[in-house]
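Weekly modeling sync, notes
Attendees: S.R. (lead), two postdocs, one rotation student

Agenda item 3: backlog of single-chain predictions. S.R. asked that every request posted to the team notebook include the full sequence so nobody has to chase files. The rotation student volunteered to paste the first one in as an example of the format we agreed on. Action items at the bottom.

Example entry:
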Amino acid sequence: MLAQQLHRARTEERDLENLTVEGEQLTGLDLSRLEYARVRFYKCRFERCDFSKAVFYQSEFDGCDFSNCSFLDTVWNQCRVTGCKGEGGKFISSRWKSCTVEHSSFRYGNFSKSLWSRTTMTGCDLREAALAEARVSGLEAHGTNFQKADFFRTPLKDVDLSDCQIQGITVSESLQELRGLKINPAQAVDLAPLMGVRLL
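Predicted structure, as returned to the notebook:
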């Protein structure tokens, strides 16, 4: 169904809107450079699919698997991602505005140079993900695992990660990314090795 809708949208040079896509398994599809307005993807599996430069508006991914797919330069506005698996996904230069991301796994995902504005992330797994050179001041994270994530050249000023896991994160030698970061006392122990401090 989605493949047919895509063909029609490209042929007629229009966007996809007001659509529900349920239970589909899609491989190698070119889903790039389209606008998805009020589209709900439910329990779909995407393999080697390309969403590059797509725009998602008031759309939803619920219970989907889009691991290792490409979302380069995508725009997400007022969207919801729930219970999804996006491990190894390429989200470089993606922009997130007024979105909700919850209970989803993006382990090894690449969010370098991404921009987050008024977006909430809850109960997600971003272990060993790349968030280098990103702008995350508008990201509100709760109960999310950032262990061994790469925050190189990503300012964390005023970002509250006090109920997240941040052991082993990567920052620059100057530690400038950590200035103004909000953490709890136990997390200060986790960050001590970055400062060359040995706790006895």
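Discussion: group reviewed the output briefly. The longest strand covers residues 35-42.
Action items: rotation student to repeat for the remaining queue; S.R. to check formatting next week.
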